[in-house]
Design brief:
Blueprint: E1 3-8, H1 16-27, E2 32-37, H2 45-53, E3 64-68, E4 79-84, E5 87-92, H3 96-100, E6 107-111, H4 128-141, H5 146-149, E7 150-152, E8 165-166, E9 170-178, E10 184-189, H6 190-197, E11 202-206, E12 211-213, E13 228-232, E14 237-242, H7 247-251, E15 258-263
Parallel strand pairs: 1-2, 1-3, 3-5
Antiparallel strand pairs: 4-5, 4-6, 6-7, 8-9, 9-10, 9-15, 10-14, 11-12, 11-15, 13-14
Helix pairs in contact: 1-4
Length: about 260
């Protein structure tokens, strides 16, 4: 049974999720469709890329991943299908895929508009997720090759990932995701923290240096309720939270807000 995952910014009160699932199942009834998240902020390809990048590898190799965020129904932006790290990814050519991939994909194609005329699929440009992406996902799940659903492309939109800046005594990173509990996930990995810090004491500064943290927790339980804390989460990334509180709201931090760490001799 083929696995097809969905990430979107449609929210649960829209019909779009059901429409895409229905189209996939009408083309391939044996498909197993898994919702990763439909709570991505509208048009936020950074959030969508974070979710996809950190979840796809948990699924079996050969899984198909639809990332339907900021996908406009026009003829100027292509729908892409890519094969990367033994998984398939379907999205708009808006730079999102480049934020997921750490190297070039093994194969990438522009999904043919003509292919959506087969099997009775409507070519409705106002809803390309249902026509282009759902169709391509069903075809790949049934064993079709990318070359059968699209034309190879050598160029596609690429965006620069937000990478932390650092020198011998400091790291400046950014908020890349805010989870359900309003915990703040940054782009600072533990490996970089250890590399620069070398076990030295530090000062972590948030919100224009107004809030400061001086230690790294191993667990949330080390901190009393309402207190600010930092730890490295299961992804190995620096996370800032308030024990039983909502850090992003309390600290007024959003995606792209900066986090500064200074190390002392």
């Amino acid at each position: 049974m083929a696995n097809i995952t969905l990430i979107s910014d449609w929210k649960n009160n829209d019909f779009y999720v059901a429409a895409v699932k229905g189209k996939i199942l009408s083309l391939f009834p044996q498909a197993s469709i898994i919702d990763v998240s439909h709570q991505v902020d509208m048009f936020s390809i950074m959030q969508a890329a974070f979710l996809s990048k950190n979840s796809y590898s948990i699924f079996p190799k050969g899984s198909v991943h639809i990332v339907a965020v900021n996908h406009e129904g026009d003829t100027q932006r292509n729908s892409l299908a890519a094969f990367y790290d033994d998984h398939y990814f379907l999205s708009s050519d808006d730079g999102l895929l480049s934020l997921i991939f750490e190297s070039e994909p093994q194969e990438i194609v522009k999904i043919n508009n003509s292919s959506t005329n087969q099997e009775g699929v409507d070519t409705c440009l106002s809803f390309p997720e249902m026509t282009h992406l759902a169709y391509a996902a069903a075809m790949i799940a049934q064993g079709k090759q990318l070359s059968e659903i699209g034309e190879p492309v050598t160029e596609y939109t690429k965006l620069l990932s937000f990478l932390p800046q650092y020198d011998g005594n400091s790291i400046t990173g950014n908020v890349v995701f805010i989870d359900t509990y309003k915990n703040i996930i940054t782009n600072i990995p533990k490996s970089l923290f250890d590399q620069v810090g070398k076990g030295r004491r530090f000062e972590m500064m948030l919100q224009s240096y107004y809030y400061k943290i001086y230690k790294i927790n191993k667990t949330y339980s080390e901190t009393i309720d309402g207190e600010l804390l930092a730890l490295f989460n299961s992804l190995g990334m620096l996370e800032v939270a308030i024990k039983n509180g909502q850090a992003s709201d309390m600290l007024n931090l959003t995606v792209n807000s900066s986090i500064n760490i200074k190390f002392f001799s």
